[in-house]
Amino acid sequence: MNAKIELENQYLLLTPGPLSTSRGVRSAMQRDWCTWDQEYNQLVQDIRQRLVALATTQVDVYTAVLMQGSGSFSVEAVLGTCVPENGKILIINNGAYGARMVQMAKRLKLNVVELAYAETEVPNLDEIATTLSDASITHVACVHCETTTGMLNPIQEIGALVKAQGKVWIVDAMSSFGGVPLDIADWNIDFLISSANKCIQGVPGFGFVLAKREQLEKCQGQARSVSLDLYDQWFTMEQQQGKWRFTSPTHVVHAFHHALLELEQEGGIAARYQRYLTSQNTLAKDMQALGFKCVIEQNKYQSPIITTFLYPEDDFSFEAFYYHLKSTGFVIYPGKISDLACFRIGNIGEVYLDDIERLLQAIARYRTNV
Ligand SMILES: *Cc1c(COP(=O)(O)O)cnc(C)c1O
Q1: Residue 290's domain is classified under what CATH number?
Q2: Is 224 annotated as a binding residue?
Q3: Kind of pairing between the strands at 89-93 and 112-116
Q4: Is residue 148 part of a domain?
């Protein structure tokens, strides 16, 4: 199967999305699809139901909304729709995606307070608890897997603090949903955001929000934007049973539906998580043996999604390394930490342990030749 990918694609994407997809997902895009009848709407409804069922056993309490654009559009739709004019949002930020939420909240002119941490730091639960005693804070947002570093933030623990204070809880689970087991009801999440091209392994083109129905229903008329009005998007999809308000990314939607079927065939999120975990563990262990240090220790905070490695020596040329690997069929990812010389390797997508082993062999050969 992997040799086939190489024939069709010149390289394997070891990035956190867009990522290498299966042939089945790609072939679902090889024709044009109409949107004006039942067939398409039913496909959309099936996607929405499947997403809710992946997220929780309490399927009646939650609902799914699909939103055009990349994942950030869905994050902005949530922030801009959920926080009322007299509300105030606390954003816990320890990376580029937390910072992006702060930037969005400010641009939307929301009342925002930020708890900022270094990119390599785990958010401090005591500090969060203290900050949450501010009664004017109505909403709290945090990233689950901070793709900047690969750190898995303690969302469950933070969520318990947020709920103890009765605030609305928003989680950017863009790069973890579908790859890390969780139950949004058990974790008290009100709005969870993810997108088509991460752990569900579809192609880019839309994001989705899993929302607690009773919370979303309160958001009518609050949005600061027409196209990013999460409530209106949901209302139309719900009332008209699978209809998108504006042009939908039909090819991407069909590919996504196929990706959901493949996730089910693989054995669901638990099985996918095991695949990712095995790949990540092997990657981290063998890279360390080759002289690369991991930025996040191999503990519960290291996600099974993406790993950040320090440059092995001061004069290490990432560019030479990158282009060499690309010529052997692997695309890795530059670092994103402000003050550390590092790079990242993702292992989500149509990527298996033998791909990681081939990558490690290519890296070992490169290291002995330079
Ligand atoms: C990928 C990602 C996003 C969204 O990025 P887009 O480029 O807009 O798709 C947001 N948050 C996290 C944590 C991500 O990994």
Answers
A1: 3.90.1150.10
A2: no
A3: parallel
A4: yes
147 Cβ below 6 A of ligand 1: yes
Shared-domain flag, residues 106 and 167: yes
pLDDT of residue 7: 52
Distance CA 264, CA 50 (A): 10
User: Among 277, 278, 332, which residue's Cα sits nearest to residue 308?
Assistant: 332
CA 205–ligand 1 middle distance (angstroms): 12
Ligand 1 centroid vs 217 CA: distance in angstroms? 26
Nearest to 193, CA basis, from 311, 92, 75, 97: 75
How many domains is the chain built from? 2
Domain range for 63:
31-264
Q: Is residue 175 in contact with ligand 1, taking CB distance under 6 Å?
A: yes
| Distance between Cα 31 and ligand 1 center (Å) | 28
- Residues composing the chain: 370
What does pLDDT average to over the chain? 96
Identify the residue whose C-alpha is closest to ligand 1 atom 4. Answer: 71
Radius of gyration of the chain (CA): 21
Using most ligand atoms within 8 A of CB, pick from 74, 175, 199 the residue to mutate for ligand 1: 175
Nearest alpha-carbon partner for 333 in 176, 150, 103: 150
143 CB under 6 A from ligand 1? yes
Give residue-wise pLDDT tens across range 45-104: 999 999 999 999 999 999 999 999 999 999 999 999 999 999 999 999 999 999 999 999
Is the pLDDT assigned to residue 287 strictly greater than 50?
Answer: yes
pTM, to two decimals: 0.96
Q: Is 172 in the pocket of ligand 1 (CB under 6 A)?
A: yes
